[in-house]
Specification:
The protein is of the alpha/beta class. Helices cover about 40% and strands about 30% of the residues. It is built from four helices and five strands, in the order βββαβααβα. The termini are far apart.
């Protein structure tokens, strides 16, 4: 078996969260010519006015944890939320309910400095996540 930690992977992802706090992300992990999809459930606990931003933070944190769990230590992650990247790069002031998620995310990124973040969109994966979430709720 190959040691996946020595190979850079490219990751695109989409996510969805329900009002109940249940959430799921679907990620496409590419290495070379191969790619596979991963489903990662996570949850959020934030007031309604911060729920969307909290989901963005929770999704990225869940993804980074999953990548490490799969043995990937070198990755380029294409983040679908440009505002989240700006928060991280500019250390912007955030609403109080996002402070904990922001700190956890910074710590996670510092624990694996070989993870690079860039802007990207994967609308097909967001649609899959929304479908998965509505299937679970039904």
């Amino acid at each position: 078996m190959r040691n996946t930690s020595l190979h850079r992977v490219q990751v695109d992802y989409g996510y969805a969260a329900a009002a109940t706090g249940n959430a799921v992300l679907i990620a496409r992990i590419r290495r070379g010519r191969g790619a596979h999809l991963v489903r990662v459930p996570f949850s959020i606990a934030a007031p309604e006015e911060c729920a969307e931003r909290s989901a963005a933070y929770g999704a990225l944190l869940a993804l980074l944890d999953a990548l490490r769990g799969f043995g990937h230590s070198i990755a380029t992650v294409r983040v679908p939320d440009r505002e989240l990247l700006d928060d991280l790069r500019e250390h912007r002031a955030l609403p109080y309910p996002l402070h904990r998620a922001y700190i956890y995310l910074l710590c996670s990124l510092r624990a694996t400095p070989t993870f690079a973040l860039e802007t990207g969109r994967a609308e097909d994966l967001s649609e899959l996540a929304r479908a998965e979430l509505s299937r679970i709720a039904a």
